[in-house]
Prior knowledge:
Elements: H1 10-21, E1 26-29, H2 31-37, E2 45-49, H3 53-64, E3 67-71, E4 76-81, E5 84-90, E6 92-95, E7 104-107, H4 110-115, E8 125-127, E9 136-137, H5 142-148, E10 150-151, H6 158-161, H7 164-176, E11 179-180, H8 182-191, H9 200-211, H10 215-223, H11 235-238, H12 244-247, H13 254-261, H14 267-274, H15 278-292, H16 296-302, H17 308-316, H18 321-328, H19 338-343, H20 349-364, H21 370-382
Parallel strand pairs: 2-5, 10-11
Antiparallel strand pairs: 1-2, 1-8, 3-4, 4-5, 6-7, 8-9
Helix pairs in contact: 7-9, 7-10, 9-13, 13-17, 15-17, 17-18
Amino acid sequence: MFIRIPSSLEILKRIGAIGGKRGIRIYLVGGPVRDIILGKTSIDLDLVSETPAQQVASILADELKGKVTFFPEFLTARIEWEEGTIDVATARREYYPVPAALPEVIPATMREDLKRRDFTINAMALSLHPDNFGELFDPFGGYEDLKEGVIRFLHPKSFVDDPTRILRGLRFSARFGFRFEETTERHIKKDKDGLLLISGERRRKEVRLLLREGLPAIRLLEKYELLPLLGFSSLHCINPPEDAQKLFSLSDPWFFYFILLTWEKEISLLERLYCLRKEEREEIIKTRKIVELEDEKEIVLSMRGLSPAALATLYAKGVTLSLDFFKKIDTLKVETSGGEIVQKGFQGREIGRILEELFYLRFKGIVRTKEDEERWIERLKKG
Ligand code: CTP
């Protein structure tokens, strides 16, 4: 079967032709094939060839005037060129020396390369060779599953080998509204404890991608009883408002949901499970504290420097002032510097206090310009 490739993806023809000139067959594989069939026009460029990636990537980089980096232990290469990034891999097999660890790889055929993948919908390749440009290589029935909206793994050991696939499956199910095929679904339930074995960095990466999909993804975590395994509270405890993501313009809502889902959990547990970054840790602690505050001024001052995700969390937790704060955020900048306040005859702790007061007055709309600030400071001086 041939798949119609949109003309905006002209680059695929070019890549195929560059390979074809040298007798090399290059394929587009995995997620981008799925996405083209689903009608997406912006895709990742993930290429595979049975010819070594090093050779393929060098040729492509040469012609496209890109810069190439090799990762010999993974048999992959990455090209950075003026229009973005292209990933190239040698067709490879994987084996898992230890379950849930990263696999080791050896060169293989295209079929074997597809067979090692997570789900049938992600195990298709499109030929880019000029001889059969756009021909679909689909040995596991991915096309039909895609049309039927089914997520099906390729073998029953799949989730044991790589438990992150459970989270990936949920991600695709949430994103596309697909259902799991029966055996695959049974194995989610059976093999889910494997998620306890993966490293913090892998858990972080997958959960982050999953939470990007928003509430539908969280509902699936609840449905498959995965929330406790990830250190999350159940959905009825957190009750995130549907509109928070929109109100706070969160293009990536992962951290918003993450703070909510882990609200009652010890920070040390989250550090262990998710390799929290220092800024994230601090933001979570600060957000939790603000919810306990009552004084408006104290709340406003504490919200300084918080990300939109943290402000959205506060909103979800009933601190509705955070929406007002978010809307005004661009105007909440005190223009008078500490040095200027010193020049006006103030010193020590007074300076910080004046800056805070000015910030709060900006928030209240009482002070709007630098002149307003100066007038207010003058008045303060006169007592
Ligand atoms: N893959 C896999 N098992 C994993 C990770 C990836 O089999 N644990 C395979 C899948 O074939 C996947 C491809 O590698 O399609 C590329 O991985 P990635 O870019 O992470 O996934 P995409 O399917 O492209 O997802 P997205 O659309 O969210 O980028």
